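Data availability (excerpt). The following record was deposited with the supplementary files.
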Amino acid sequence: MIKKLLIPLSAVLVLWAGASCTQPLEPPVETGGVELSFTIGEPLTRAVTPGNGTVADGGGIYLDNGVPDLKIFILGGGSVVARYPGSSATLTSVSDTRATVKFTGLENNATYKVYAFANTGSSLTVNGSPDWNSIGTATALDALVYTALADNTPPSVGDRMPLSAKGTLSVNSYGSGSVDLELLRSLAKVQVIFKNLTASVLTLTNCAVSITSINPTQGYVFQHSGDDVTGTNRMLTFPTQTLSDIPIQEGVNEASLNPLLVFPSIAEMQGGYRRYLCNISFSVADKYHTFTDLPVHNSLSQDITSLGRNQFLKIEVRISRGEEISFNFEVANWVEKTESVEFD
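Predicted structure:
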């Protein structure tokens, strides 16, 4: 089930002091702000660490002593004109599920770009550890990449997953407008599931899975066209594991390797086609099974050629009676979050 994070943002904006004197000035409005409202989903599927907004899958905005780990940049003409935290933005209220930031100094009849970055205190840091207060252009924001992953293991409960979004805001002559943004995890997840369709309880040993052409190394902070930082390492390898006593009862007849994180990627050319290739091996009793260069394609035999941020790639290995082996690959959204921005 896709969970959505609704973040309505509302603000009333004032004119720049340098507006043309040949036009009557509209009266400034004294109140307003950017209001971020988010939910954390069902407790059974998104376990919550009380008091800090953190969820087990890293999809919530982390609160540090009641202050959201959040940075917002508003840009006009390619340059930052307002930011949070910053002198033109004030945090006016906060709780575990809501934060309000008031911006001043924006101009009517103007179009802005909005960049948002949550959970900057993640163990996944930005390359070069930039001084966020010194970043002043869209070019600099778009060039930000994460430090290369040393460990592709997802964060545990209490850690935080980096989230980001960017979009366009148009402010009309009355100081109002609207924009919808998606606040998404900057990474994707890969899950490998072994399903027991035999008549016997199974124990699988030496389970090994690797995927070529994928990007386990480095990615952009904010979404790009293509959204893929090309690296020298284009192989994701799961640690070899043993899956014991997989039952035969429908609904519980499967076991998973520990999931791993990757960055967005576009599959490389492999044998004349743009595709990911998968290698899978495991042992059942004394029989060893190995499969190499399996094309990663969907149920219609169409190659899966890209993996985006906030998506997950599910690889399902089905073991049937007579130890017949089949495979299923699927890409889906990884708990999508929608940020709705309204300016009144």
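Summary of structural features: The longest helix spans residues 138-142.
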